[in-house]
Amino acid sequence: MKKESGIILALDVTDKEKALEVSKAVGDIVDAVKVNYPLALSCGLEIVTELSKSAHIICDFKVADIPNTNRLIVEQAFKAGAGGIIVHGFVGHDSVESCVEHAKGGDVFVVTEMSHPGGQEFTAKVAEDLVQVAIDAKATGVIAPATRPERLKLIRERLPDNMVVLSPGVGAQGGKITDVFDAGADYAIIGRAIYDAEDPRKAAESFVEELKASK
Amino acid sequence: MKKESGIILALDVTDKEKALEVSKAVGDIVDAVKVNYPLALSCGLEIVTELSKSAHIICDFKVADIPNTNRLIVEQAFKAGAGGIIVHGFVGHDSVESCVEHAKGGDVFVVTEMSHPGGQEFTAKVAEDLVQVAIDAKATGVIAPATRPERLKLIRERLPDNMVVLSPGVGAQGGKITDVFDAGADYAIIGRAIYDAEDPRKAAESFVEELKASK
After folding, report:
1. CATH tag for B7-214 (out of 3.60.15.10, 3.30.565.10, 3.30.457.10, 3.20.20.70)
2. pTM for this predicted structure
């Protein structure tokens, strides 16, 4: 993905019809659709293939295993049609490097500090080291929390300019899209505020307008 | 799972026929069969259901997300027929507690120190804290490396007696089954040395005999 301000839909649903309906409604407006394990397990990896027909798919699999197992997961995600994958840095350089190598040019995003309370216990304490893992492994970018703008800013400062920052926490979780970009994120990850909206397309459009107005 | 010495097959294959064949051959000898994401993604979660007919299944999904996503993954694994699940502790107490709560009496094992080189970078440094997460969350037990017996011993000492230790690294990775039990593991996780053997059943039986002889 290019380094530019944009919007990613977190398609955090497990129902196939709902997933296809929302993705079809907003696929041409958002820059990517993020698919997590609950959806992929509920529908099979075929859902990635199907969704990829109308949107750029990022598999949010929080890949966190030894290098060889990571390789097998990454290979299957891209084979199914993913354009990117989200992996954990906590498992170390070799595990992340394996993901980047086997993504074969596809995007790899490394999780740094996580935004839930438990994310403060371990990930936040080594967030800068996790950023370094992403840099060393030549990942596309990192995931950093929009709900903690001062932390996001610090993580952004550590990254080379060409690396991309994706930030969850906009909309239902309380973050403002303008704050997210001000703090240095490139893409805002938005979930419920789009897929649970009465009119998901209208909701996505209003975020895009807010984004344009902030430029 | 009960706290007793036993053997777990790591079914690290992605081919459905091979998985079913090996599991059927050894399902009544080993105490459990561990299924990882590459297999579940390649075959769909139905493979867990099918394998659970002839063996006790532990889903090695290294679950590592926020509490609500963890809940959805755990619910689907157990609904598919898993008897246990492996989760990461570094995502913090709330994420692990969510897994234990939604396993509803099924087994939850928490990853502590990982055995690959990258496991030394982050997980090894906080291994004792990860053990504490497992204890606090009332998990069934932990995963600790047989390839580092002195570390396994330390992790075992931190755990209450009723908690179970599963250890990978026996067989093809060089660990001896007797060393693993001596260091305090309850179950030895064995992969290639069984599923890649010319006769997987015979290979599993010889491990069981080795185990009995060591008692």
Report:
1. 3.20.20.70
2. 0.96
